[in-house]
Amino acid sequence: MPDQDPGPNQPDVETGHPSGPLTDTVVTFPAGSVANLAEVLQVVQMGDRFAVVTDVTPFHPVDHRWPDQGADRGVIRRAGSGESVPVADAVLGAVPITGMGSGAVGNLLIGRDIPVRPGEQGWVFVVVHVLPTGVGPPAVGERVELLVDEHYREALSFGHTACHLASLALNEALAGRWRKPVETDGFGRPNFDQLAIDSSRIGPDGAVDCYRLGKSLRKKGFDSANLEDELADVELAANLRLAEWLAVGPRISVETRGPHLADRREWVAAIGQQSVRLPCGGTHPPSLASVGKITVRLSQDSDTELRMETKLSRS
Fold first, then answer.
1. CA pair distance 71, 7, nearest whole angstrom
2. Parallel, antiparallel, or unpaired: how do β-strands 206-212 and 305-314 relate?
3. Tens digit of each residue's pLDDT (9 = 90 or more) over 30-63
4. What are the two backbone dihedrals, phi and then psi, of residue 168, each rounded to the nearest 5 degrees?
5. Would you state the pLDDT for residue 19?
6. Which of 6, 38, 157, 205 is the most exposed place for a label (fewest CB within 10 A)?
7. Cα–Cα distance between 292 and 184 in angstroms, integer?
């Protein structure tokens, strides 16, 4: 796991206790939603900022364990006054289940303070909407409208799908360097991306991925000798494959096991007669029809790290 950005601190003061047990947040971003009516379930104070938990949200939160896709931007609009307050961040939160009820009651843990993985039994997982410094929150029980910046969401979604396609193309371009059998991707190629990934950052219409090329990967059977001298050929092979896939018009979807934040989700790409799927908690466009090109650029800063920069251009 790569070094991670520190998440928000655990709340200092609970300012609005939930009126009843909390349950896992219902999330609508996997289906592409950018707006929801919701009820405020809990408000907590984080130093000089407030954090708001609602029963349902379209906001995609950053996951502190693997912060590849950042949080959505947007606003919370108060139903009564029509006043809108910006959402400065959206992060993962968790509350331990206590007592005999079906929900959780207790202290809200945020980001890196969460000691378990999403889906862990005995915990409820929620999206935490963090307001800017000095901005007052809506009250517990208040009805609000959550609105995501759809243009920013769209750019991140295209960037995330481009990242997945680029990783699959890179797997194929490096397939001849494996000397031992290893786990494969959805196309049956040695899964270099999964085995070597060190960090991934999704940006608008693109991404940057860094891979480890050290002793551990060599023991698994990857031959990194003279890779730097052959990067141009590897890069060309990956870009040719990406162009072929785009010409076919990949169809993209996100399949989920349920409506809640902790439910398993998968990215699915249908490319011609082939279909591939990857576990993914991010957002994606339903189609790449508007995409003119996806290209990757490879570089090595050292003998032990490979960097792939992916860019997408829309027609």
1. 12
2. antiparallel
3. 999 999 999 999 999 888 999 999 999 999 999 9
4. -70, -40
5. 56
6. 6
7. 29
CA gap 297, 20 in Å, rounded: 52
Q: How confident is the model at residue 174, as a pLDDT? A: 98
Report pLDDT digits (tens) over 104-116.
556 888 988 999 9
Whole-number pLDDT of residue 24: 93
Distance CA 197, CA 215 (A): 14
Residue 113 and residue 6: Cα distance in Å, rounded?
10
Contact by Cβ (8 Å): 20, 77: no
CA distance 162 to 133: 34
**Residue 17 burial (CB count, 10 A):** 12
Identity of the residue numbered 91: V
- Amino acid identity for residue 60 in this structure: H
| Closest C-alpha to 8, from 87, 105, 118, 103 | 87
Contact indicator for 61, 91 with CB cutoff of 8 Å = yes
Question: Mean pLDDT, the chain, as a whole number?
Answer: 91
Q: Which of 233, 239, 234 is nearest to 211 (CA)?
A: 234
Please tell me the pTM assigned to this model.
0.91
pLDDT score, position 4 = 39
Given a contact cutoff of 8 angstroms between Cβ atoms, the answer to whether 239 and 310 are in contact is no
Helix (H, G, I), strand (E, B) or coil at 259: coil
Kindly tell me the sign of the dihedral angle through the C-alpha atoms of 276, 219, 177, 198. Answer: positive
